[in-house]
Amino acid sequence: MQRTNERFVERLPLVLPHPAYAYLISALLCGVAFGLRLLAESFLPIGYPFVAFFPVIILTAFLFGVRPGTFAAILCGLVSWYAFIPPRMAFTMNPGVALALCFYGFVAAVDIALIHFLQRANVNLALERERSRALAENRELLFHELQHRVSNNLQVVAAMLALRKNHVDHEQARAALDDAAGRLALIGRISRTLYDPADEGQDIQGFLTRLTQDVVTASGRDDISVSVEAPPGLTLQSRVAVPLAIIVAEAVSNAIEHGLPDRGGSIAVTLEDSSGALSLKIADDGAGLAPGFELGHGPSIGLKIATALAAQLKGRFALDHRPEGGVIARLDLPAGAH
């Protein structure tokens, strides 16, 4: 309702199909005011010849602009002078009448001038609002175009690495190139999905669901089931959502590659919000941690990336044994870090 009123006010003064209509309506309003003044004659004390006509002047100037407002002021002044200023039914001029008419003219002029300046300011405000809206749309368009190009460039680099892999004979080098290409492609997809110019935050539940399904599909496995739980409506800013998404992707990939390399299984991703502190758990029912495993000292680059990103967010990443079997990857972020 408020927006509707704003749009109506921004269209004032009204532009009628023919200018004469504004003057005709103004004259009709003066007639209504005249009738009301006659009806109130017995209730009003002596004097007050203009009391019913000021609202008409204000309304006319507000709806139709300065000229119809001035026309209404002149017409109402003549009617008041003729019908309600003694001696009535005559355009008599004396010092008292002149003073009353001057007072009336001054008040009417002030009313019309104030309405005119307010409407001018309102028009300028509407123009500025429209200009700001256009700038915001252009900014968003340029931002999305930039984000699209960056993501495309990452995809191109990933494709080049994948092609280069075919010309490398060393198995470890081929694996490194393949791993780098996959990570670049993943970061490109995450960036395209999560970054937005308004920085209003992303619904993390829906995004993590799509992300984990994407990781499982990329692994070529159809015997892995993934479930995602997160507080309804929880949103995270891009600066937190992107590293968190990469950590989830690395943990899910690690669970598939090392925990469930030769059999099906399940992976559960759980995100909890406790008074602003986030706790992310990625649990699998795989083979578990190798004896003597130490995070950060193994060959897994993905886990090192996850640890570094957690430190960047002032949090902590760890891997623990799951009591039922398997591994729990856990990321804890303190309150205020996101």
From TrEMBL:
It catalyses: ATP + protein L-histidine = ADP + protein N-phospho-L-histidine. One of its GO terms (cellular component) is membrane. Keywords: ATP-binding, Kinase, Membrane, Nucleotide-binding, Phosphoprotein, Transferase, Transmembrane, Transmembrane helix, Two-component regulatory system. It is found in: Membrane. Residues 145-337 form the Histidine kinase domain. The chain crosses the membrane at residues 20-39, 46-64, 70-85, 97-118. SMART domains: HATPase_c (SM00387). It is a multi-pass membrane protein. Its EC number is 2.7.13.3. InterPro entries: HATPase_C_sf, HATPase_dom, His_kinase_dom, KdpD_sf, KdpD_TM, Sig_transdc_His_kin_sub2_dim/P. GO terms for molecular function: ATP binding; protein histidine kinase activity. Gene3D superfamilies: Backbone structure of the membrane domain of e. Coli histidine kinase receptor kdpd, Histidine kinase-like ATPase, C-terminal domain. The keyword NAD does not apply. GO terms for biological process: phosphorelay signal transduction system. This is histidine kinase. It comes from Sphingobium quisquiliarum P25.
